[in-house]
Amino acid sequence: MTAEELIEEARKVVGEYKLSNADFSAGSVGAALLTAKGNVFTGINIEVACGIGFCAEHSAIAEMLKNRETQIEMIVATNSEFIIPPCGRCRELMFQIDSKNLNTKVYLSKEKYMTLDELLPNRWEPSI
Fold it and tell me: Does 125 participate in catalysis according to the annotation?
């Protein structure tokens, strides 16, 4: 799968998802990831009160985990126009799900990616 194809998969899930409160939103960001086994999983963000929402990457990772996979080859998040780099929480989640994800290609644009290792140089490690 190419980066463009993965970006297209992420954009397919971007949209307006009606929530009960007009101040809340979902789906303004979509994410898609490709696993080491070649499967694609997508997710959307949810923005609600009290900080209890989550990023699109978290949603895609949850879908991956439901299918008993942990290794991510590449991942991208986007709105309808722009690629959105993952926040620190998303980066840390990818690492803590599977340390092999340090090799994950994280797309920052159609043409540019960095590995998770490059984006997460001072990651959390358990104390010894």
Answer: no
